[in-house]
Amino acid sequence: MNLVLPWLCSVPLRAESGKRSLDDKSKPPRRFACLYFSNGVEPAHWWAKGSGSEMELGPGMEPLQAHREDLVIIDGLFNAQSVANPSAHLGRMPNLLSGAWVSLDQNDIRVGQTMDQVLAQQIGGQTALSSLVLGIEPNELRLEDGLSMIYGSCISWASDTRPATKEIYPSRAFDQITGGGRQRKLDRSILDAVLADAKSLRGQVSQGDRVKLDEYLESIRSIEKRIDRAASEERLEGWRPSLAKPDMVRPKNELPQDVPEHMRLILDLIVLAFQMDKTRIATCMLNNDLSQMNFGFLEGVQGSLHLDLTHNGRDPELEAMYLRTNQFHVSQFAYLLDRMKKIDEGGRSLLESSLLMLCSNLFDGDRHQADRMPIVLAGQGGGPLETGRILNCLDRSDDDRRACSLYLSLMDRMGVELPRFGDTDRRLAGL
Fold first, then answer.
1. Most buried pick, 9, 256, 374, 431, via CB within 10 A?
2. Could you write out the DSSP letters of every residue in 130-168?
3. In a domain, 154, yes or no
4. Per-residue pLDDT for 111 more than 50?
């Protein structure tokens, strides 16, 4: 006869196999977020020295000064398939989080599934939203150098051939996070109709189109599961989110025209989703590759497009403006850290339970340099991640400098252990 014990917070949870489970449900869950900015950095100003409170940051990272002890600054990682790709932009950006080859055939849009979506697939079922995929600039459908600009608009790929849907409207993202029961019923009725139509169509299309249709149906099923989770979400024991209802007003329906306001709203929504435990995985594109964003709102920037400032031909005046855009992007990351650091989840801050990454696909944007990615980590992911330091990988062999080694290590900390990801089976030494 088996006796079921009550929940005891001091007893570690065990999996069915008897092994200790990675997640202790008496503690806050782990979260992961990636913030991306396009076209790299101004190299002369992107550096760090020392450690802890004595760490020195170059001008490009200066906005992170107050958070030095929360950071791991990583230098020297890269994606080998990006370096090998002759497309200097669109062949080196969409594989940022996958390390996969980017197809140069405009009739075959193809990139590897990204690590955030692997996490969403593996652990996203624990929350109402498997992940949040956010951005500031819209998806572009035009061609650039013979390739689709969808490559330049998406860092998150649900499969090798399908980018995850990016949301740029704060109001819609808010509704995803907080959507009520009435909306779920409406969503369910629409999905039922869509599924019925798609299933009836399946027998009328070619084998090749069936693959696309099946992929589409799978995305619909994932939405179904999300709606069901949202409708039945209850917590009977263990850790509870520090926020049960939104602590911010629903944003207006229209797209914000003020770039700083837009970015802060999107970042506030990531914090809201994490604090309410509506998702544990998020990505945000602060701007697209080949960005058309105008930074004239920054002091000292003469209204040039971001793309023009990064491709500056070493013109001192343009370089100075490029630096200011770097500082602006880094300040958005600092804002996110500051907000999360102030949120207590029962003796531990939201930042301490999270792994946050700021990165770009290129180092020197003017040279399209893909063999050295600027990466800054923050938070501890709920575990013993040593912060306040620099992890310099430049002197390592190429096999030990793969960005996918970092992604394997981060996924491990999120509770998803894979034998291999992208172009490597090695974890990042020293992390």
1. 374
2. S-EEEESSPP--SEETTEETHHHH-S-BSSSS-BPPPB-
3. yes
4. yes
Task: Quote the tokens at residue 155.
Answer: 């860092």
Would you state the structure tokens that stand for residue 40, as one six-digit string?
């790299």
Range 279-303 average pLDDT: 93
Distances (CA, A) of 88 to 138, 325, 412: 21, 21, 31
The b/e string for 280-309 (b: 16+ C-beta within 10 A; e otherwise) is: bbbbbbbbbbbbebebeebeebeebebbeb
Q: What are phi and psi of 349, to 5 degrees?
A: -75, 160
C-alpha atoms less than 13 angstroms from C-alpha of 398 in its C-beta half-sphere? 6
Residue 25 located in a structural domain: no
Q: Which of 268-272, 279-283, 313-317, 376-380 is predicted with the least confidence, judged by mean pLDDT? A: 313-317
192 inside domain: no
Counting the structural domains of the chain, the total is 1
Assign 220 to helix, strand or coil.
helix
Query: Is the separation of the CB atoms in 132 and 173 below 8 Å?
Result: yes
Does 301 map to a domain?
yes
For the domain that residue 61 is a member of, what is the CATH number? 3.40.720
Residue type, 378: A
The CA-to-CA distance between both ends of the chain, in Å, stands at 46
pLDDT value of position 125: 93
Of 310, 306, 402, residue with least CA distance to 82: 402
Burial class (CB in 10 A: 0-12, 13-18, 19+), 215: middle
DSSP calls for 349-369: BTTTTEEEEEE-S-SBGGGT-
**Which of 310, 329, 279 shows the shortest CA–CA distance to 36?**
329
Q: What is the pLDDT of residue 21?
A: 44
Q: What is the pLDDT of residues 369-397, one digit of tens each?
A: 999 999 999 999 998 899 999 999 999 99
pTM: 0.85
Full domain range(s) for residue 64: 31-172+250-413
pLDDT higher than 50, residue 307: yes
Closest CA to 52 of 352, 430, 389: 389
Q: What is the dihedral of CA 237, 271, 232, 218, to 10 degrees?
A: -130
Within a 10 A sphere around the Cβ of 38, how many other Cβ atoms? 26
Cα-atom radius of gyration of the chain, to the nearest Å? 22
* 12 close to 262: Cβ distance less than 8 angstroms: no
Q: How confident is the prediction for the chain on average, in pLDDT?
A: 88
Q: Length of the chain, please?
A: 431
Categorize the per-residue pLDDT at 229 as very low, low, confident or very high, splitting at 50, 70 and 90.
low
